[in-house]
């Protein structure tokens, strides 16, 4: 049987997807902060160390202690703007996921501040999905605005009837 960290996203149960997402958050936090430990970070994210290791295989042993690897080959689903649309794409590894994350930060900067310079870094940039298909990141400001306008805002449900 294939280990959990090697299974494609679509073959995971809802619980396994949740645990993978939490595990990836733990990995990301450990890569970005040097002063946190694995047990501390796992506890902060309401997941056990055993589950983080089982769902990621993102650690190596150094002097008997788990140390986070610089990158991983864990499949994860991310949203990308491509061809005038927002699509969900299964990403193959953490390096590609980082590119998509930086792209989304550039899009956010453009939408909030009108800063097109951050988008220019991604002109003609393509990301490869887990099936090998390339997706060119959308950098046309007009298309990005259209894509953003099509995203539905979550409805606010009134819990209490206050009069």
Please sum up the structure shown.
42% of the residues lie in helices and 17% in strands. With 163 residues, it is an alpha+beta fold. The mean pLDDT is 89.
Describe this protein's structure.
The protein has helices at 14-32, 38-44, 49-56, 94-113, 117-120, 141-150; strands at residues 59-62, 65-68, 76-82, 85-91, 126-128, 134-136. The chain contains six helices and six strands. With 163 residues, it is α+β, with helices and mostly antiparallel strands. The strands form three sheets. Strands 1-2 form a two-stranded antiparallel ribbon. The protein has two domains: 4-68, no CATH class; 76-150, no CATH class.
Number of helices: 6
Structural category is alpha+beta
Q: How much of the polypeptide forms β-strand, as a percent range?
A: 15-25%
Main sheet specs: 2 strands, antiparallel
Q: Quote the average pLDDT.
A: 89
The general outline is globular
What is the number of beta strands? 6
From the N-terminal CA to the C-terminal CA, the straight-line distance is: 58 Å
**Over the alpha carbons, how many angstroms does the gyration radius reach?**
18 Å
Question: What order do the strands of the largest sheet run in, or round the barrel if closed?
Answer: 1-2
- Count up the domains: 2
Which blocks of ≥5 consecutive residues have pLDDT under 50? Answer: none
Helix content: 40-55%
Order of SSEs: HHHEEEEHHEEH
Q: What topology does this entry show?
A:
Elements: H1 14-32, H2 38-44, H3 49-56, E1 59-62, E2 65-68, E3 76-82, E4 85-91, H4 94-113, H5 117-120, E5 126-128, E6 134-136, H6 141-150
Antiparallel strand pairs: 1-2, 3-4, 5-6
Helix pairs in contact: 1-3
């Amino acid at each position: 049987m294939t280990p959990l960290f090697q299974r494609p996203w679509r073959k995971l149960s809802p619980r396994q997807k949740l645990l993978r997402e939490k595990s990836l958050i733990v990995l990301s936090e450990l890569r970005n902060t040097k002063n946190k430990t694995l047990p501390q970070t796992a506890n902060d994210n309401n997941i056990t160390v055993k589950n983080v290791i089982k769902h990621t295989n993102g650690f190596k042993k150094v002097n008997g202690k788990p140390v986070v690897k610089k990158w991983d080959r864990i499949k994860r689903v991310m949203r990308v703007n491509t061809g005038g649309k927002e699509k969900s794409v299964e990403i193959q590894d953490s390096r590609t996921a980082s590119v998509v994350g930086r792209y989304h930060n550039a899009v956010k900067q453009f939408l909030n501040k009108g800063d097109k310079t951050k988008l220019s870094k991604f002109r003609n940039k393509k990301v490869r999905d887990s099936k090998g298909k390339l997706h060119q990141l959308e950098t046309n400001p007009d298309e990005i605005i259209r894509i953003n306008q099509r995203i539905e805002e979550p409805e606010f449900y009134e819990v209490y009837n206050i009069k």
